[in-house]
Structures are given as C-alpha cells and as structure tokens.
Amino acid sequence: MAVLDSIREPHDLRVLGREALRELAAEIRQLLIDRVSRTGGHLGPNLGVVELTLAIHRVFDSPQDRILFDTGHQAYVHKVLTGRAAQLDGLRRKDGLSGYPSRAESPHDIIENSHASTALSYADGLAKAYRLRGETDRHVVAVVGDGALTGGMAWEALNNIAAARPPNVVVVLNDNGRSYAPTVGGLAEHLAALRAGPRPADDAAPRALFEHLGLRYLGPVDGHDLDAVQHALHRARDLPEPVVVHCVTRKGAGYPAAEQDEADRFHSVGVIDPATGRPRSGTGGRSWTSVFADEMVKVGAERADVVAVTAAMLQPVGLDAFAAAHPGRVFDVGIAEQHAVTSAVGLSLGGLHPVVAIYATFLNRAFDQVLMDAALHRTPMTLVLDRAGITGNDGPSHHGMWDLSLLQLMPGLRVAAPRDAATLRAELREALKVTDAPTALRFPKGTVPPDIPAVGRCGTADVLAHATDPEVLMLGVGAMAPVALRAAGILAELGIDATVLDPRWVTPLDPAVVALADEYRLVVTVEDNSRCGGVGSVVAQELRDAGVHTPLRNFGIPRRFLAHASRAEVLDGIGLNADELAAAVADTFTRTAPLAWQGV
Ligand SMILES: Cc1ncc(C[n+]2csc(CCOP(=O)(O)OP(=O)(O)O)c2C)c(N)n1
Ligand SMILES: CC(=O)[C@@H](O)[C@H](O)COP(=O)(O)O
Ligand SMILES: [Mg+2]
Questions:
Q1: Which of UniProt's keywords are assigned here (predicted)?
Q2: For a designed S-S bond to 98, which of 102, 249, 424, 520 qualifies (C-beta 3.0 to 4.6 A apart)?
Q3: 0.90 exceeded by the pTM?
C-alpha cells in the first residue's frame, strides 16, 4: 500500500500525479475488500465511490469545506483518506470504527444519522449559517445517492436550496441506479434518461429536473474517471450558484463478485471469502425475516386482498418471495416511508389490506402518517417492523428502540410482539383479520429462537411459566420473553417464585393481566424498546388506573443513543440478559416484598 501509506490527511492527495492516484484507487479498493470481507459492512456502496471521494477531497478543503454523506454508509473511503485506514480492522465492532461518519472519530465528519435523504437539508442549513456568519468561502458538498434522492425530504431541501441559491453548495449525485435493488420511480427513469444522454434523433440533451428548479446541472460524468470528476467539481466549486454534479457510478466497482451480484451488488455483506465473495459462515438458524417472508407467501395465496409495500428494501424486509409468488401485489415506493404508510392507507380505503414492511427505526420517519392517516381513519392495515429493538453493528440511528413508545400513543392502533416463529405466524394472521384499526407486529434482527410453548393463557397473554406462590409476575415482551423465562429459572434457584407472561398483544394490554398483577408482590416488565413510553410505562399506567398498587419495575433500553457493537454486546451493556435481570429483580423483590406483602 505504498501510496496509501503516504496519506495521513486529505491535503496529502494534492501532490499525487495521475499514475499515483490510479495506484491509490487500486490500493483503497484492495483495502476495502480485504478489511470489509472480514468485518462485514457496506462493501458495494464504498467500492462505488473510490474515485468520487478522491476527487472531492482533492478539489475541496475538508474540514474548512464541509463534506456530507447522505445515509453515510458510503463514507469508508472518506475515513481512509482522513487518517482512519488502520482502524478499518475494527469496523462496526464494539469500540471500533463506526460504519457511518462519526464526530467523535474525526473533525472531517459532521453528520452521523444513518437515515437517508437528510444531507441536502443539512447542506441548506449550513449554507445559510455560513452566509449569515460571513463565511461564504466555505463550501458545502453533499454526496447523495440516487436512492436517497427518492426521499421526500431531499426535495424539500432542494426546493429551499433553489430559492436561497447559495453559491457554495455542491450536490454530488452518486447515481449507481440502485438502492439495494434498482431504484424505482419516475425520478429513476429521469436519471436513466440523463445517463443515456441525448438521443441521436434529437440533438437536445434532456434537460435535468434540477435545471427546471433553477439549479445548475453538470453531467452526466463518469464517476470512475477521476479527471472528469475533478474537472466537473472544479467547475461546480467556481460557479456562483448551487450546482448538481451528476456522477454515474457502479455499486461494487472493481470487485467482480460484487458487480455481478444481481441481488444488491453487495450493498451490505457479512463475513465473506474475499476471493469469491461467498459468505464464510451462515449465522445458523432461521431469521425472523424468513419466517415472516414464508408466512406472507401463504397468506397471499389465501387472501387476494392482501398486498405489500416496501420502501426500497424488498429483499431485506422479506417481501421478495411474496413479490415472486404474487406478482403485481408488492409496491416499492422508494426510500419514502411517509409515502409508504399513507399510500397504504389509500390501498386500504380502496378495499385491500396492505402490509407495510419496514425497519422499526425507519418508521420514526412516518410517525405522523401512522397517527393521522392510519390511526385517525382506523385503517385496516398492518405494519411489520423488522429490526425492532437493538440491531447492533449499525449503531445508534439504526436501533429500532422507539416503535413501541411511538405506537402506544396512537388511539386504536394494536401492537403485537411475537416471541418466536409460531407466535409471529399466529399474530400476523390475527393482525390481518382486524378490520377496524391499524395493527403492527415487531420483531428483532437475527435468528428466531426455538418455539416457546405456553403452559396457559391469561386473557390474550400466554403464560410461559406458572409460579406456585404469587411472588413475581414477569411480562416478557416479544424477543425478551425467553430472557424473562431464563431469569425466572434463576430466581427459582434463589427461592423466588415467578410467573412469566408473554403479553403477545402489548397494546391494548389485556385486563386479565392487570387483574393478575393485583395478586402478586412485584410486577416486572422486560422489553427491547426504550424504557420511556414503552410497554412498561403503559403497564404502570394501567395498573394505577385499575387501583392495583403492586410494586412495579420496568426493564428496557435506557434513554440514550447506544454505540455500535453486536446485538448481544449492546444488550449486555444495558443489563438486558437473564443473569442481570434476575439479579435486579431479586434485589428489588427482597427490598419491596415486605411492603408489597402488606399490600401497600
Ligand atoms: C430513511 C431510510 N430508509 C431506509 C434506509 C435503508 N437504506 C440504507 S442505504 C439504502 C439504499 C441507499 O441507496 P442510495 O442512496 O442510492 O445509495 P447507494 O447505496 O446506492 O450508494 C437504504 C434503502 C435508510 N438508511 N434510511
Ligand atoms: C445503511 C442501511 O440503512 C442499511 O443498509 C442497513 O445497514 C442494513 O441493515 P441490516 O444489515 O440489518 O439489513
Ligand atoms: Mg444508489
């Protein structure tokens, strides 16, 4: 890595000639393939922006000029060029390099949110601030993918940039024609027409949409031709108005295994064999997503009214099999979760039952649509929230830790949290039968546990373990049910008797559960969701409203942004494991039992 070893910071790039730059690009690609094949990560997106990122850092002067990466999953090259190459060994691992920009890592990083379609809004704000502060010599460069550009927020920002006409904003459109799969929609078709360039018949090149908004447009430029990108960026930098530089790139460029991958060009890989690109080892066991995927195919065959909606994540959310089995009944709306929800309300108003499959963290973006379009209209539709709870290596903006808190606020909306494959299938079908309200199911990333049999029922809740003495009543929500069950086993060894319930439908909470709580000395809730406003908060309110004063302790995710690590490491870090849960419950019980026993 002769050339790469000479790069400590972006300024070091300025002295390199064309041959050295070509060699550097090759060394960076080799480094990415070697390291990311060992750590896992967004290999394809980063292989696609090697020349682009080199050019940006040669033309602009980071951090005086601010470089923003929309979504941020394609910032590994930026990290290599800003002195972090050696840390790639720990990419996305506990205490290692984040998979996204991180202000704690470098002054060259300024935004950390991994939710798409935000960069142009940051750029608009930054440019206005620099103007008001008289720092008009600072440029703001926003790297935005064609997928991110399908998000509505990006157009809200462009609308404002076109109005404010900041002379120092450069939008680098990284157009590889894909999100995971090929990007969909009219915008994607427009970009394809621009990529194709002027048709021989008519000499006029198609005017870019951006030009109709009053923005300058340069392109299409071959995003892998360093000279061409640098030339375009120099022009953009010197133009006294906002410019969109349309760069055409290939996701996975320079790595045949990625470039030939039909699914998603190695958008996000696990540990792979760098020589072949094949996964080194499976995670073992079935994923929650695959259980949902298979059940949806069956449901689709039984109910012609069931359709599905995805926000540019057909395969990641498990709807690809449904799409293949039931053509024309899956709608990919692009990275547009707000539209996904409200267009689903439209599907429902039209007589269908839509299933909107979305990662829990991205539902945050559609809060108002779920509340005011789905819940207000009591729309029969079903949200299926994958990656709910701690996700792990994608870090704080990817943990799906707020959905239960947000959904609990919504009048009429019903939420289920399956504990295993059998309850996922059952609760999905129960949700699809609801005709007077929206429903939601939520389950975590990773491998689904073996089915956990119930030993009884308590209203709609499953009894998983029954105490002889009504000492501790534990409500284990969804994926936390097996954790609560194991903790109850540890408590039994300590002589503390615990009943374990899986509420199944967490909202509304069944009155029978509230009544049962009155018989116990301590109630405990455990959930893979924020402690604020989650199931625990609702249980507390329902108990007090019912005049039940049994002491209560809620376990969940603290109100903190939690750094990347494996899911298990993050859960251990916040005490959401059986041993620590049992110890905390035992401590609480021994301190409160006398009070509880006297029915205080
Ligand atoms: C709001 C939101 N929805 C979904 C995602 C999941 N996601 C991450 S990257 C990606 C595709 C991005 O495509 P593009 O912007 O074209 O970047 P590329 O990977 O092609 O470089 C998606 C859908 C996200 N990060 N944020
Ligand atoms: C960047 C992004 O939002 C997604 O690509 C995410 O990294 C995928 O996460 P999973 O690996 O859990 O599907
Ligand atoms: Mg793309």
A1: Isoprene biosynthesis, Magnesium, Metal-binding, Thiamine biosynthesis, Thiamine pyrophosphate, Transferase
A2: 102
A3: yes
